[in-house]
């Protein structure tokens, strides 16, 4: 955090609300012709198209969703955007705009908000989304960030959670569990630091899992890739709360059951090694960890040939009839009922 | 607040995030055919039309924007929606959807959130807007509400802040200053209560100004009325921070000056009487008070015949060349420069 460094501190009250928003957003460029008017009026104005509009919003609260003692503000800004873009991609759409509102206590100087907005700007540039509005206000304690993302998809491309059918394959992108383990490493280092502030942590063997926690990337590439492969998922959701609860959302809303195969769950070697070090079960971490921001979707079995061998996709199971329940098939070939255990705050 | 009453208290942790959102939103009806999918998926889905989309967002923080010791939760929910709808109407559009995110500490039981959502629901029904999404999370302190409103307007109907021209008339809807004075009365009663909790306040002579503070109404009727009168404002803004700073926003963005006539500013008799009681200048209150959620707009002088005599409108001045500055003409016919003194938090 900035408070640990010897930098200039400009009090927020020196700028006032209007000066602050202008100051923080003046370097943001717009990349969509659909953005007619961004920050600066009562409301932003977007040109409509023949596509449907997707809207999603998330709230991140200091002390609940993030800890600034190990989360740099620039990363926090980036992650706050990712969390929302991920929801748009999970509808099989493309995100085009965001609004960002923040509430901060007076312990934060202007320079801290500049760091936060640098991360938001990097996310906007990397993912080609336009910042079109927001609100900046004071809080009595801590920092809170509210982001709303606006996206587009052709009506025929939108994928809901409720379309999974019996015999459909269950597919996950990338690998999972890393973000949660990265958090465990960061929490441990924080405790070590509190005992001995001079200790220099050696985090070389945790780089991947820490990056997955501090700088997750939403899967903007997946809707485009699916289109290229001529695959339309029957249901899709992003993995924010852990594989188990996301699978259960799809099954419940689609009124189906499922079998997930433990040995198919894609894990990075660093996840396996760090799980062992922490004496935790890597399958449990993948099922309940969360914050991976990968996508989970179902496709008709007839599409198997189109996705097999693609390094982005892993088939982890299949959809069953609802009365068969939602089950994990263990390595020992035992079936146990899935449980929703997302660790996200309320 | 609920804490003062002998009601049932259900801990929020008994429901969990998914149960909570479903519980709070299950009685909300949808009134727009453009709302394809509301709460319940990764993102809401809206059908597009040939109109432009308007997006606005506001954050309300306990202890900064509201005080639950005199703001009932149902009113707070209603007001949080009004604040955002007002911004859509200020673009000359119609609001169709909202998202609502809340962060609450564990001092709030489920019944408190039900009260809050009852106010949100009343606003949705009265103003015909659909609740399409949101987020519910815990906070380490207090309550925070983030609302985003989505509206529509034909491209040719959208009114920005930057179109005011020299000689245009400056018009305000309704009357102003009441919301701020209502707050002063409530603050005074709070202090009286703290000294003597058995004191029964007599608020009969303040009913209008207190209602303007606790239950403001956004001017949904004005865009429709303007259309009926065949008047398109050259610039428009809503009065959230006080007349003075709103006039200055229009002038600055339109690169013009203005003259506002003190004796034209529309004040309710209760505002005049209560100002005298509080030994405050009613013009200052109108200029700097805020939270009235009336609309301020400019129209070509040729449109004067279309608006004169309409009880919704008061012409309070006119636009001048930029070099003439932004001035108030007092009752004594003196010109003094306007100053932005909105009392809203940072």
What is the topological layout?
2 copies of one chain form a homodimer.
Chain A: H1 16-25, E1 35-37, E2 44-46, E3 52-61, H2 73-89, E4 94-104, H3 110-127, E5 130-138, E6 143-153, E7 169-173, H4 178-195, H5 207-214, H6 221-228, E8 235-238, H7 243-254, E9 257-261, H8 269-277, H9 282-288, E10 295-299, H10 304-307, E11 313-320, E12 326-329, E13 335-337
Parallel strand pairs in A: 4-5, 9-12
Antiparallel strand pairs in A: 1-2, 3-6, 4-6, 7-10, 7-11, 8-10, 9-11, 12-13
Helix pairs in contact in A: 2-3, 4-5
Please give a structural write-up.
Two copies of one chain form a homodimer. With 346 residues, chain A is an alpha+beta fold. Chain A folds into two domains: 155 residues, PurM-like, N-terminal domain (60s Ribosomal Protein L30, Chain: A); 169 residues, PurM-like C-terminal domain (Phosphoribosyl-aminoimidazole Synthetase, Chain A, domain 2). Chain A has ten helices and 13 strands. In chain A, the strands form three sheets. Chain A has a seven-stranded mixed beta sheet with strand order 8-10-7-11-9-12-13, with helices on both faces. The first copy, chain A, has a four-stranded mixed beta sheet with strand order 3-6-4-5. In chain A, strand 12 and strand 13 form a beta hairpin. In chain A, helix 2 packs parallel to helix 3 and helix 4 packs across helix 5. The longest helix of chain A has 18 residues. Chain A is globular. The two termini of chain A are 26 Å apart. In chain A, 51% of the residues are buried. Strand 3 of chain A pairs antiparallel with strand 2 of chain B.
